[in-house]
Amino acid sequence: MSYNNxxxxxxxxxxxxxxxxxxxTFVALLLVFVFIISKDIITGMGTAMADPExxxxxxxxxxxxxxxxxxFGTELEAGSIIEGDVLIHEDGKTIRVTVPLKGNKxxxxxxxxxxxxxxxxIHDSIDVRLKKPEKHTIKLLR
Length: 142
Prior knowledge:
Blueprint: H1 13-50, H2 53-63, H3 66-72, E1 77-78, E2 85-89, E3 94-102, E4 107-117, E5 120-130, E6 136-141
Antiparallel strand pairs: 1-3, 2-3, 3-4, 4-5, 5-6
């Protein structure tokens, strides 16, 4: 005696294929999330790197400060922005950049807070940080 399964309705497509749909959907959503986050980071880095005036003006202010030149020396050199920290707010109109600053006597970091107005960066604050021999912050612009 054989049984005929023609009276049972076939299972829905999702119930037959859920074992591969769930992981594929999870991975796809994860990739979209990573893409969205990396887009902001890449855009911010590109915005700051495309306009070297942002860092150069801050370096000039540091060179004109006597306290900075007494600690770092007269030959100041701003490092690569990729080594630093970049935070972008308001669709690239406000930026915070941390860049290494080296002189012939010592090294530290320079923190730049700026906003963009009419395709030009306007510095809101510039701080120079020194870690050795002791932590010290020099406020150049507030």
